[in-house]
UniProtKB/TrEMBL annotation:
Gene Ontology cellular-component annotations: cytosol
Domain HTH crp-type: 147-224
UniProt keyword list: DNA-binding, Transcription, Transcription regulation
Single Gene Ontology MF annotation: DNA-binding transcription factor activity
Domain Cyclic nucleotide-binding: 13-133
Species of the source: Actinomadura syzygii
Protein name: Crp/Fnr family transcriptional regulator
InterPro entries recorded: cNMP-bd_dom, cNMP-bd_dom_sf, Env_Response_Regulators, HTH_CRP, RmlC-like_jellyroll, WH-like_DNA-bd_sf, WH_DNA-bd_sf
Matching SMART domains: cNMP (SM00100), HTH_CRP (SM00419)
């Protein structure tokens, strides 16, 4: 069975809006800056606003019963946050923390639902985003049961490279620097592996000539090759 592959990255919620819709939503929002490591939302909080990231990257984590934080996803420019809790009338299901300085639009829940009522076609956009995230979570769970650690890391890095390339074009040689500044611990949490497993896998991918690494920096040098490596059994 093929290892986990997230849905093909696509431009975020903001990019899918037309100029008029963006203007209306921006007028309803309050701009805010978040420094590195600052929480954008907390797991368990009441759902009184949504957030649209304009610039920067954040990680989505969930705290387990034994107190461990598990990385579930990253969110970047144009992404919508906390919409499912607002629309479902639930408390936040995860914490979102800035990986880099983040500039965002904070939209009160009542204004966001009013915006959706004024632009019914945006409801489908929000719904499709929510469904895609559920599908990605299901694929991730399947991968943890069917593929080895190095495969999971290769697939994850390929996904992050494609996501990064939506915002910064590849270098002239085709290499893609992964934009979200994730540590080895964070990569391990995302793929359900130890830091040592991630370090060994990174060494193996370097030896294959598929990536280059630095401190919190990974550059994918051969994206097609990384995809092929991830498919190996």
């Amino acid at each position: 069975m093929a290892p986990y592959a997230a849905s093909a990255p696509r431009h975020g919620f903001w990019a899918a809006l037309d100029p008029d819709q963006r203007g209306v939503l921006r007028a309803a929002a309050r701009p805010r800056q978040f420094p590195v490591k600052a929480p954008l939302v907390y797991q368990g909080d009441e759902s009184d606003h949504v957030i649209v990231i304009e610039r920067g990257w954040a990680k989505v984590t969930s705290t387990t019963e034994d107190g461990h934080d598990v990385v579930l996803a990253v969110r970047g420019p144009g992404d919508l946050l906390a919409e499912s809790a607002v629309l479902g009338g639930r408390t936040r299901s995860a914490t979102v923390t800035a990986l880099s300085p983040v500039r965002a639009l904070v939209v009160p829940a009542v204004r966001f639902t009013g915006f959706l009522d004024a632009y019914p076609d945006v409801w489908m956009l929000v719904t499709s985003t929510f469904v895609q995230r559920i599908d990605d979570a299901d694929r991730r769970l399947t991968a943890h049961m069917t593929s080895r650690g190095t495969q999971r890391l290769a697939t994850l890095l390929a996904h992050l490279a494609e996501l990064s390339a939506l915002h910064v074009p590849p270098a002239p040689d085709g290499s893609i620097e992964i934009a979200p500044p994730l540590s080895q611990e964070e990569l391990g949490s995302w793929m359900d592996a130890s830091r040592e497993t991630v370090a060994r896998a990174l060494n193996g991918l370097r030896r294959e000539g598929l990536i280059r690494t630095g401190w919190r920096r990974i550059t994918v040098t051969d994206l097609p090759g990384l995809h092929e490596f991830a498919k190996e059994t």
